Structure of DUF2069 domain-containing protein:
Amino acid sequence: MHGALHKYFHWGAIASLVTLIIWCVLWETVVAPLQPGGSWVVLKAAPLLIPLYGVIKRDVYTLQWSSMVILLYFTEGVVRGYSDTNPVSARMAWGEAAIVCIYFACAVLYLRPYKKAAKRMARELLEKVTKVSIKK
């Protein structure tokens, strides 16, 4: 379960999450802010700090829920990519969507062996319970 590829998926999830945080901050403060000088939109990066510790520590539950929450950032990237009139901001939005795709893929592929193991354990438990109830 913990092969080299598995380790790369973990590091990919960490790297893409950190990149996304930096990307959002730079986008909304320096590269293409909605208002000159920056705006409160930069706070969209703050919720990404919540799962960071759990992702670093390989917490399966954190990786599961963060892979779903991160899709909100994908949605924002696609919507702003299509609708932003500023071409630099539109490119940043598409970049955000791409980084989210990388995180999502790494998180899901990292979690895959755990999900398979959980299914196997549930199947074995169900078989044990079924055998016990048949004997009675």
In short: The longest helix spans residues 87-135.
